[in-house]
Amino acid sequence: MSVTSRYRQAWEGFWSEASDEQGAVFWDAEPALTVGVHLAFFEPHLAAPGLPVVDLGCGNGTQTRFLADRFPHVVGADLSAAALDHARRADPAGQAVYRLLDAAEKTEAETLHAELGDANLYMRGVLHQAEPDDRQPLVDGLATLVGERGRVFLVELAEAAGLVLRGLAQSADGPPPKLAPVLRHGIAPGEVADAAVPEYLRAAGLTVLASGETPLVTTEYTADGSRIELPSKWLVAGRTG
């Protein structure tokens, strides 16, 4: 099962218009506040730290480059070719490899796994952006990529984030400038129940090894100068036994 063409086109449109300027994209916060924080939760659960690392939904590669400074083989994978163009321009030294991937398409996940072998996966804020019918196939694709030895780290918006986002979108002054293009391209986050995420993982044959809460940091600020942070939950999962 592949993601819908509408979803793919929405992301192509968004990334085609996005600026290369650092911090111009709503969720593209600096790595010290995102993946740098997440690794402290993730690394203690890695059964095989030397495996390739896949940054799934890498976008313009900000977090991918941080990972490539710390792991020997990092792949930034995304559904959008335009996003990968941004990532490659920002990585002229080729620290990471970038790959067009629809992880909800079984054969594409299988092909990448055949090339890399088992991998450790980092995925931030992707599942809640997917269409409801694509979410289980996407998580099934993650299970294919991690194989027997890999681990997956997910950070997803909590249910409570929906209220925050609706408040921002419906503000009397209109949505914040960096959120506006997300909404305009029709890629506003969908509602995913907090309890649904571990169920998707279990249905894919993965065991949740650890979980917790941490804010999903954005690059946008409120009128009083406070950085906008969205409630989110993280999980580490893999095969055991």
UniProtKB/TrEMBL annotation:
| Gene Ontology molecular function | methyltransferase activity
Where does the Methyltransferase domain lie? 53-145
Classification of source organism: Bacteria, Bacillati, Actinomycetota, Actinomycetes, Kitasatosporales
Give the keywords, sorted: Methyltransferase, Transferase
Give the species: Streptomyces lutosisoli
The protein in question is named Class I SAM-dependent methyltransferase
Q: Name one GO biological process term.
A: methylation
| UniProt keyword annotation of Zinc-finger present | no
Matching CDD domains, A to Z? AdoMet_MTases (cd02440)
Name the InterPro entries on file.
Methyltransf_25, SAM-dependent_MTases_sf
